[in-house]
UniProtKB/TrEMBL annotation:
This protein's name: RBR-type E3 ubiquitin transferase
GO MF annotations, alphabetized: protein serine/threonine kinase activity; ubiquitin protein ligase activity; zinc ion binding
Origin superkingdom: Eukaryota
Origin species: Dothistroma septosporum (strain NZE10 / CBS 128990)
Pathway in which this enzyme or protein is active: Protein modification; protein ubiquitination
Phylogenetic placement of the source organism: Eukaryota, Fungi, Dikarya, Ascomycota, Pezizomycotina
A cellular component term, taken from the record's GO annotations: cytoplasm
InterPro entries: Parkin-like_IBR (IPR054694), Thr-specific_kinase-like (IPR052969), TRIAD_supradom (IPR044066), vWFA_dom_sf (IPR036465), Znf_RING (IPR001841)
A Pfam family reported for this protein in Swiss-Prot or TrEMBL: IBR_2
Xref: Gene3D superfamilies: 1.20.120.1750, von Willebrand factor, type A domain
Keyword annotations: Metal-binding, Repeat, Transferase, Ubl conjugation pathway, Zinc, Zinc-finger
Catalytic activity: [E2 ubiquitin-conjugating enzyme]-S-ubiquitinyl-L-cysteine + [acceptor protein]-L-lysine = [E2 ubiquitin-conjugating enzyme]-L-cysteine + [acceptor protein]-N(6)-ubiquitinyl-L-lysine
EC class of the enzyme, as a word: transferase
Domain annotation RING-type: ranges: 851-1042, 855-909
Amino acid sequence: MADMRDKEVADLLILVDATASMTSYLEALKQSLPQIISISALTNCFERIGILAYRDYAHNELLHWSGWMTCDHKSQQHNNVDLVEIAGNLHVARGDRDDHPEASKTGLAKAYEVMRNNAKTLVLLYADAPPHINKGSEGYHRNGRREQEALLDPQSYGGYGPLFADWVSAAKTLRDGEKMVQVIPILHFPYRAQESGYYDYLAAMTCGAAIHLHYSIPRTISEVTVEVLLAWMGVKKRGAGSIDLPAVLSWYKDTDLNEVNVETDLAAFFPSGNVVASQRLALTSILLEERLPKKGTPLQDFARTYKQDPTYRDTVTAHLRAIIERNVSAMSLNPVFGSLWRTFCNDRENANRQELLDLFGLKVNCISDKVERTKMKAWLEESYDYTAEVLEAIATVPEELQYPCVCLDPTLSYQTATKDEGEDEDNCPITSFKRDELLELGRSCDHRILQRLGRVLTRLTFVESADVAPSHITAAGPETVIKIPIALARKEYGRQFWRLLLHIVVPGTMLDSRAAALLGALALRMGVQPLRLAAETVMLSWRDKWNDVEVPETWNVSCLSLLLDADKGYQDRNNDGFTRPDAGLLYREDRQLFKSLVDYKMLELNLDTTLHARVAWTPQKTIMPIGPLVLCKICQYRRSVTVMGPNSVCGMCCFNRENPGCPDTEKADIHQYVAKSDTDLTNAYWYECNVQRCRAQYIVYDVGKLNVRPKCHYCRMGEIAPALECSKCLSKVIWPYEYRYGIDEAAFACVGCSQHRQTVTDIESTAKQLCAENGQDWLLTNLDNKLKEPFNGRSLFHTASNAVPLEDLCAKVQILPPQEPLHLTLSGKRVQNTAEVINSLRHWVYQRRTESGICSLCFSTSRKSTLRAACGRSGCLQQVCNSCLQGWYGLNAAGQILNTAALHCPFCRRAPASKTLAQHGMGVHAVANLCNAVKDRGEWIYAWCTDCGCARRYMERVCANGAPPHAERWQCEECRDLKAEGKVVKTRPCPGCGIETEKISGCDHIECEVPGCRVHWCFHCGEAKAEEEIYGHMNEAHGGYYGDLEEEDEHD
């Protein structure tokens, strides 16, 4: 047995009172036990775990034993006992002859029977009632007598039954018997609290501890139990402080328990007895650590075991998934699990890592309880506290290498006096940063994060040696001034300098190795000279790790730009004529790849950047000399050559001749707006054909009949207009071929240029507009479709991961490739400064800058690509930021009064396109009867019923009454009446899969969440519609307002 004790084989047995008095306690346990079981299995401390529920002899089901679940990850024998499911299905049993004491002795006898000799069994006993005890002259109660008969049977419970007939005998058997047992009762005695002393005695006899809960709620049970288990295992987070727990711990003092021989003697040792035998203190983690007898050999730190044992990693992954899926809050029960979770998160080689990270984030977002969310947030924050590890790493550096070092000089202040009392991050001490603000570098290299860390780097104090160290820094203790030796950047110390550097800002902060390398890159980018060698060392150690598409955080413009800038600085400093040209912090191939990707993304971000294109002008009812004339042989008027048909017949005469039956009112009036005295200097109205492929200029005589956009005769006939191109402005002028005799077409000048008009104009355009007309080849060479969907707005990581292998990307993809000659057109007109336009765009790209735009509603500046059309309707050119769009169109919410003004564009006051409302309107675009709310807005105030989802009359609009009182979760009268009669339709079956669906609030547009269904349907009538038809249906069938209104385009 001694050998087995040395091996520290342990089992965990959870013993639960499942009688009627435990109703509320057991309900809480049903939520807590699954957490406790999963957490216990995660610790890898126990080879087996089992659950035993006991009731009383008035019940048919006296005992319920789960059997043992094997959880030793090294064992080859596994069973399929699902303890989590069994724990969740525990239920109380009621009997006709229940009494207050319960069959605790029987539960212990059965527990002892299923234990094994070669392992120590830790028993967690959950109870709220005492065992059946001999009351002396009164004897046992009726159920107690039945228990005595059962236990005194020599064959009962493997022959151990008689040993458990007396409570004192049971305790001594558990202490001195052939099986090693330690009992920790976790009690909640709301009534007759003195009777809990029986369990105090049992705990004392078995070297356990009796825990008395203040509340029997799930969080309390789980938190206390996990803390007890970890204290028993000897595991705690290094550097963690004491935790107050909602319970008290009791134990005996100054009393010889061995004097007790039978259970009738126990009354003297209870709190109400004549001996002050026990004391109770508020439970804390420190008290548990001091008082609880522990496992012989403390467990190794879970995080360290994870790093060293590949099999344990699989165990951790499986149990983490179970814990996250069932109740993610269980992970916050103790900071120890925070360290394990952080180690798991940093293990990028674990194939399940990203899946569990996504699942964790999803489940955390689903926590609705504010207290649970607060505790989870605090747990996550504490999981990043590595104070003990940092101090241990600093201590490994010998005294002679403690200098040079970096620290923060507490006597220096970098704050400036300002009149503004508001918080300004730039004017706050860097010690005011929170840990999560510093750790963001591992997730993003956003300029705000780099700016924050840049402030840290520039405010460090560098101490070269102890001899030159300021006296106040030398005299200060490590708790006042934390000094990080630069020697930690060396290989023999694990190159941990950059990982530990931020510990001097927020103690306990430790970066992962990738973020540490980025911090070194930032120091190089900023030119922090004292840290240059340390930064170059860490960057060179990461040289072969950056080009890894399995790390999505690297593949963005900010991160890659930081790496490229650090690399360029390194190359510039080492450009001494002796260093190899390709030497750098990045491999040459990686450098080219990263630059190509950054240029590509910057080009995409600049597709909406303003470019100034010079194109020919557009005459629009412009009065100029009519220009060359030709005599029409029919009407005998000298007409502009631009309106002449074949055989010296003008266009008007051609029309009348070809349409003899045309009414007089529709015939061309050949005598209007023309005179026999007209010369080429007579003024006339010039127009340009609106068709993009034409854009030819011509004369219009009867401008009063031009009620549409101008379109030349040839385009109306589907023909190509015969036009001459001006050699100066490149405008095109209609000039039929038969009238071109004697004209030097190469030197042709249009009337506008001849009259010295400004015939070339600067037009604001964008690369996106130019691409719509000229394609993308001038922007991007994309051989073999290397980039599957160029400029799709997806992240750079998505682009890179879908272009693997990346070795040939630079050969196949080129940004703004040189093309000679290159002729771009804009609205059908040749861009006359193509080279300047491309160079301007190239400048934005290579400078890694984007143009800012101004929100028309809040006047804030943001990247132009992030601005959205205010309503999506033609003619409304206002651009608005997302927050303003959501703030305006999201003013209306279910259960509140409808603001009809917010149903329209704030600028042009038209109804917005349905896509705009769908994205920002919080469902108001699909509210039934909304059209009546708009129609009656002058007489009635409408509200959005939270039950039926319809717009209903709320109150009559009375002049000078002001705004109506605020409504919240408002219900219309019809819904209130239906609810009173119990006729409210709470659910409807999905027309796709038949699953009953409940609408909590909002509009009637339902998208089925069942995988494989995803049908869009109307909750109002239950009809299924295609996604693009659902709003039209609501508009037509139920009085919606927006219907199928989509974004409009300019049209004739």
